[in-house]
Amino acid sequence: MASPYDTGAHWLHYREANPFADYGIRNGFTLYESPDDEVLRIGDRKATEAEIMAFGDAVEDALRAITRAGRGRQDVSPASVMPDLGAWSHSVHLALGPYEMAKDFDHFSCADWYSAEDGTDYYCREGFGTLFAHSARDVPVTLNTKAQRIRWGSQGVRIDTDKGTLNARAVVVTVSTGALASGSIAFEPALPPDMEEAMHQLTMGHYTHVALRFKENFFGVGEDGYFYYKVNELSNGSPKGFAALIDASGTGISYCDIGGDFARQLAQEGEAATLDFVLEELRRMFGGAVDRNLLGTDVAEWSTNPLVQGSYASAEPGGAKARRKLRKNIAGRIWFAGEALSRDDWATVAGAHKSGLKTAKLISQALQA
Question: N or C: which end of the chain has fewer CB within 10 A?
Fold first, then answer.
């Protein structure tokens, strides 16, 4: 029997204001709150209670430092305000940086981080991708069509694609900031300099799902539990490790997630290198149980995808105002939308969805004026 597997977004973040949660419940999907169970491992053994408390204290110390800076609107990196976390430094860095933000501590802004709303996480047993596809089933969409150039002026816009040219009074651009910054879509005339700058300040993170399906759960935590382990090495300043969501929705699939610059490094080496890294780490911790129980694998990474070029966007240190800059329209012709432009739930599907709806309403009002 096939099991739902989300190659991209899996968490329904901030359930309190997430329209997909209510939609899923109304339409018969199985939604439930994310458990907060977790396990910590050190080498080939479970951590002791004292070690778990030490790790937790280090996480709290790091969060306090980032929060203090963010609340004070300090547009600086977490790395610049981080206290000495001792032996847990790399592990906390992984948990709060690459695992949550898809970036290392020197590549996002405390002020921008603080702007995100916090709330309850939910899961969809049938898969978030299945739920989203259902919600959009009646929306006419043309896939596999690449936009190459947007020409704009007083008469409207012309969008050149590999399947012809579209003419419109205005256009909503929702591609990732990674794709925009790469220049894969040309704008004529060129975009204003402050827009160009904002695109390069709202950079994409790097995040890779390594999905492993096991016939038996040997991780020491139950369904939808979190797995962490003590990370002892860096690779060019990025924690050389991963964190995992175990036995997602009881499917036997565990998401072993690598983030930050280390994820980008592995992506450049190829999927085989990424998979090998995760499996070797698990073998080091669990020995033969890994291969005895392994039923299937898959690697889903977005950094090398030319249409996305990363996972989701956050502001580099010094770039906390970039989202606001990109929310401005250009001559009433070009409007930007997407998760990167969400005010308080960026990096989420819901944030992208709400940004698009709001932008569409603004365009409609502008065109009717």
Answer: N
